[in-house]
Amino acid sequence: MRKPFDLSLYLVLDPELCQRHSMLETAREAVAGGATMVQVRHKQASTAERIALARTIKDVLRGTTVTLVMNDDIEAALAAGVDALHIGQDDLSPALARERIGPDMILGLSVNSEGAARAVDPMRVDYVGVGPVFATPTKPDHAVPLGWDGLARVVAACPVPTVAIGGLKQAHASEVFAAGADGMAVVSAICGTPDPRAASQALWERICRARAG
Ligand code: TZP
Ligand code: MG
Known about the structure:
thiamine-phosphate diphosphorylase activity, magnesium, ThiamineP_synth_TenI, Thiamine-phosphate synthase, single chain, transferase, TIM Barrel
């Protein structure tokens, strides 16, 4: 059985932006501030390094309901025993990923178009990351930004819960939820800020307000 998960405030860790605080410290502080999911996204690291980092974050998350996600690396996801794997359109197929991770690990997939959203198989994929909403220097090779209308269209075409990503800041919470997404994913709005706990708290408050309408 897959664990329940909450996409509301999804932190994606980036080693280059996490310089004032380590990735571990950023995760700890963000969770204290309200983050509901934490993704290890460390493109330059080896599988062994990703496993070690995920294990230390897993210790920090013990006793919470926060979902720990590994980006791309199936081997690291399995070895570290994380809750979820997140893959992109250019990674292995969701069918193959599901086969390798088994029935119990949550599987997330990035999509950038209505076509890709419609192609999502809800038997295999548990949630979708939709973006980028805006251009962002955090991911220089990102696809064409969707904007708010594009986000709403892609979200509407998705058969599973969605989390919006790409250039999102506190002030965007109401538009994210108005577009129908179930959560917002951020990198720079938490990583690299002087106080990741305060940044997460501020985002969390905006999200609660946005949800309340
Ligand atoms: N995928 C699409 S945009 C993005 C990823 C990982 C980066 C988002 O970073 P930021 O700093 O929240 O704009
Ligand atoms: Mg990927």
